[in-house]
Amino acid sequence: MHTYDPLYLFIQGRWLGADGRDTAAVVNPASGAVLGRVPLATAADLDLALDGARDSFDLWRRTAPAERARVLHAAAALMRQRAAHIATQLTLEEGKPLAESRDEVLRAADYFDWFAGEARRIDGRVVPANRPGVQQLVKRQAIGPVAAFTPWNFPAITPARKLAAALAAGCSIILKPGEESPATALALARCLDDAGLPKGVLQVVFGVPDMVSARLIASPVIRKVTFTGSVPVGRLLSERAAAGVKPITLELGGHGPVLVFDDADLDAAASEGAASRFRGTGQICIAPTRFLVQRGAYHRFTERFVAATGRLVVGDGLDEATQVGPLANPRQLAKIAALVEDAVEQGARVLSGGRRLDRPGYFYAPTVLADVPMSARIMHEEPFGPIAVLRPFDTLADGLAEANRLPYALSAYAFTRDARTALDVGDGLEAGMIGINQYRMVATELPFGGMQESGHGSEGGAEGIAHYLTNKFISQI
C-alpha cells in the first residue's frame, strides 16, 4: 500500500493542520478514493502569510547570492534523494504514470540548480556619464514579495519554476498550488525548509481560489504576481494586478498545432506525436492537439497515428506498465466527453477511443478524431485531455493560416525534411515555443512562455529570473 502524506498550510515556518479550518477532499483520480483533506486558509491565515512575506523580504534580498545559491542547490539535492517518494505522492493525487512523475520531480530539481547559478549572475552596469565627476550605475534588485498561483497538472515542475527564480532573485514568495494535488508542492516546500531557507521566506497556502487571489493580490505587501492556468482566470488576475499597478507573468492555455508536410518522416511524426499528445492524459498546455497534415501524406499519417494510439497502455499510474493515466477530476472527464459528442454530432469521424472506460476512476480512452468540421467546439477550445484532431491542408500558406487561426499562441510544431520549409514555418508560426521535427523542447536553460492569449513573460532560462528583478538607476557625484 502506498501512503499519502499529511497535508498542511506552511505559514511563517510553521506547518498548520486542519484544526479550526475548512478542508477539501483530495481524490485519487484512478480510483475515486479520498486520499486526504487539505486545509483551506482563512483570511487570518492569509494575513499571517502576507506578514511573513513582508517581514522576511529584507533579510532574504540582502542575503549574499552565494548563500541563496547554496540553499537552492541543497533543496535540489534533497528533491533528488526523495524523488521516489515525491513521485508516488504526485501519481496518487494527479494520476500520471510513475515514470512521468519521477521525470517531473527530477526536472523540478534541475530548475533549482539552474536558478541557483542565476542567483550568482545577477549583475548591473556602469554607464559613462556625459558630465565629468558623475558616476552612473544601473543595479538589478529583487522586486519584492511575490504571489504565485499554480495548477494541478504539473504540481512539481510548475511551482519549481516560480519558486526557484523568485528565491534566486532575492524575493520572498507566497505559493498557492492547486488543491487537487497539494502533497507534491508541500514536499518541495519541505525540501526548501530542510535546506535552510529562512523561516517566512516561503509560505504555502491553499483555499478558495477566488478569495485567496483577491486578498493576496490586493495587499500592498505583494509587488509581483505570477500565474499558470486557464485563460479566463488569467484575465481575472490580470485585472486584479492592474488595479495595484503590479506586474504579472502569465502562462495560459494552448491549442498546439502540428504541421506535417508531405516530405516529413511520418513514422516519427505519428508515433512520437501520439506519445506526446497523450502524455499526461493530454492535460499539458504545450501538448500537440491539432495535427494538420498535408494532403499527400494525410492517409499514411492517419494510419500510423491511429496504430500508435492503439498501442498505448491505459491504467493506474502506479502500475509501471501504464502510459496513459486517468483525467485529474470529474470536471475534465465531463468536458472531454462533451467535446467528443459535439464533434461527432457535427460530422467528425472517431478513429480511436471516443468513450469513457468502464472502470473506477476518471478514465477516458485516448481518442483520435478525423475530418473535424470547423464548427466543432474542439476546433476553438483547448481540450486539455486525451483527444487528437486530424485535418488535411494543401499549401504552406493554408497550413500556417489554420495553425495561426486561434489566439492561443503557446506552442506549435512542424515536421519536414526541407530546410526552406523549416525556415518558413519557424518564421511564420505564431507561438512562444516552436519544435521542428521534434515534440520535446522544454529545458531549464531555455525560456518557457507564450504570446497573445496564451500569456506573456517567460519562465526558465536567463529570461526566467528577469521578471523577479527591478532596475534601479543611481547617479552619483
Q: Trace the largest sheet across and list its strands.
A: 14-15-16-13-12-18-19
The percentage helix is 25-40%
Mind summarizing the main beta sheet? Answer: 7 strands, mixed
What is the CATH homologous superfamily assignment of the largest domain? Aldehyde Dehydrogenase, Chain A, domain 1
**Residue fraction in strands:** 15-25%
CATH class call of the largest domain: Alpha Beta
Q: How would you sum up the global shape?
A: globular
Radius of gyration: 23 Å
Number of helices: 14
For the termini, the CA-CA separation is 70 Å
Under CATH, the topology of the largest domain can be stated as Aldehyde Dehydrogenase, Chain A, domain 1
Mean pLDDT: 96
CATH architecture of the largest domain: 3-Layer(aba) Sandwich
When the domains are counted, the total is 2
Task: Pick out the low-confidence regions.
Answer: none
Structural class: alpha/beta
Number of strands: 22
Short account of what is shown:
The protein is α/β, with parallel strands linked by helices and about 475 residues long.
Walk me through the structure.
It is a single chain. The strands form six sheets. The protein has a seven-stranded mixed β-sheet, sandwiched between helices. The chain has a six-stranded mixed β-sheet with strand order 9-8-7-10-11-21, with helices on both faces. Strand 7, helix 5 and strand 8 form a beta-alpha-beta unit. It has two domains: 267 residues, Aldehyde Dehydrogenase, Chain A, domain 1, CATH 3.40.605.10; 188 residues, 3-Layer(aba) Sandwich (Aldehyde Dehydrogenase, Chain A, domain 2), CATH 3.40.309. Helix 2 packs antiparallel against helix 5. With 477 residues, the protein is an alpha/beta fold. It is built from 14 helices and 22 strands.
